[in-house]
Amino acid sequence: MAVGHYSVINPNDEHPLPESHKLTLRVTSVYGNSYHYADRVQSGQFVFKAVEGGDYMACFFAIDHHPAIKFSVEFDWRSGMAAKDWSNVAKKGSLDAMVVELKKLEDAITSIHEEMFYLREREHDMQQLNNKTNSRMALLSFVSLFVCLSVVGLQVWHLKSFFEKKKLI
User: Fold this and answer.
1) Contact 28, 35 (CB under 8 A)
2) By C-alpha distance, which of 70, 71, 48, 68 is closest to 58?
3) Model-level pTM?
């Protein structure tokens, strides 16, 4: 789970944010799949569940300004356990602090458990790859040894026949 909040920071608190201070945001995965797109906004948020492995990227674009201006953007991106809003969970269910802490711990345990299964699966895949590589290298070694011994045999045969011909002439 990933949650993000972004907003353009107002440089002058006395006046509202000018219309020129708008940006475009696109959140994409490593494979180029778009998960969020906002065009010419001053603030916003996004939420998505990651289905692809790898890094996700948020690209901010500003409208062309003449003359060029600079403005700051406040950006908060949370993922995994940090993405959950525990204060809202406590407010919605009117739960006491101990129950909220237990829910946090349960969520952390579930996350660790899922990560362990993922790592076990990756380890199994890596072991299979390692075994395939070892068997291929053994086969290549035997083929290389066979080629070398064949070349040695041919050289011995050639030299033997060569010297026998020299002896007769």
Assistant:
1) yes
2) 48
3) 0.50
Question: What is the structure's pLDDT at 93?
Answer: 52
Q: What is the pLDDT of residues 59-71, one digit of tens each?
A: 888 877 767 777 7
Please spell the DSSP secondary structure of the chain, one letter per residue: -EEEEEEEPPS-TTSPPPTT--EEEEEE-TT--EEEEEEEESEEEEEE---S-S--EEEEEE---SS-----EEEEEEEGGGGS-HHHHHHHHT--HHHHHHHHHHHHHHHHHHHHHHHHHHHHHHHHHHHHHHHHHHHHHHHHHHHHHHHHHHHHHHHHHHHHHHHH-
Task: Please state the domain extents for the chain.
Answer: 2-84, 87-168
pLDDT in tens, 96-136: 777 778 888 898 899 999 999 999 999 999 999 999 999 99
